[in-house]
Specification:
This protein is an alpha+beta fold and about 250 residues long. The chain contains seven helices and 15 strands. α1 packs across α2. The longest helix is centred in the first third of the chain and has 9 residues. It is elongated and about 70 Å long. The structure holds uracil. Uracil (URA) binds next to α6.
């Protein structure tokens, strides 16, 4: 795929399109070792592009794993609350703080990143951010039944009847009962719940139906992707090639 050089720079650096054009005109941008002439030049992701001697590595698609902290919301823009997209733009990926800026591979985040699905403001854990609309669509489409696993802490004790009810399906006010969900009790008030749907507040509504309130919720898995345990709450990193391929291969 070929992109205009000014767009490439605007997408993968902090430059605006007009600033990028100016940088190009002033000879500060090189493509494959040659000074670029105009922003109209077409470049490919395989080209070597230097801006002021710094390599600008554009990727068509970016994939990020965030261990979402409570208090931020899963959208791209909001008038009141900080969004996950604003959050990752403010915080360097884990392990990068000690790396000199010009050596960081993923400092420039794509401008069109969005979260794949939603976690509530008070929910923590695994959230994927990407600009790959097709992958997001496939992961979220109800037809694909992608499994999502949550760690839950409750205000009341669980029992084995709860396991049966989760498996059989619950009436949470939707057209149909919830699809079979796997409840694994870890402690009297702690469990893992795996669901294959993504209705609004689904986990909280399912437990409410069993007469319990969720007091802490954290997503630990989505499809083939497991939350990296070395990521503290609030930390993020880019997905590995293997993680990306596994997600792409789900369907
Ligand atoms: N279910 C919920 O109730 N909340 C979430 O954030 C995710 C799933």
């Amino acid at each position: 795929m070929n992109l205009r050089l000014d767009k490439y720079l605007a997408d993968f650096t902090e430059l605006t399109r007009s600033q990028a054009k100016k940088e190009i005109r002033e000879g500060r941008v090189q493509v494959n070792g040659e000074p670029a002439k105009t922003g109209n030049d077409k470049v490919a992701f395989s080209d070597s592009i230097l801006w002021d001697g710094r390599e600008i590595r554009g990727q068509q698609y970016q994939y990020i794993m965030l261990n979402k902290p409570a208090g931020i919301i899963s959208s791209t823009a909001d008038d009141r609350d900080e969004t996950v997209v604003e959050y990752i733009k403010k915080h360097s990926p884990v392990g990068m703080d000690s790396v000199p800026e010009h050596d960081r591979k993923s400092v420039f985040l794509a401008k069109d990143l969005f979260p794949v699905g939603r976690l509530d403001k008070d929910t923590e854990g695994l959230l994927i951010l990407t600009n790959d609309g097709e992958l997001a669509h496939r992961l979220l489409s109800p037809r694909h039944h992608v499994a999502k696993k949550y760690f839950v802490r409750l205000d009341k004790d669980l029992n084995t009847t709860d396991v049966d009810k989760m498996r059989e399906g619950l009436d949470i006010g939707e057209k149909r009962l919830t699809s079979p969900a796997a409840l694994e009790i870890l402690a009297p008030r702690e469990a893992l719940l795996t669901i294959t749907e993504g209705k609004f507040h689904q986990v909280k509504r399912m437990f409410a139906k069993l007469g319990k309130n969720v007091i802490y919720l954290k997503r630990t898995e989505m499809g083939t992707l497991t939350l990296d345990e070395s990521l503290a709450v609030g930390e993020w990193r880019v997905l590995t090639e293997e993680e990306i391929q596994n997600l792409i291969n789900i369907m």
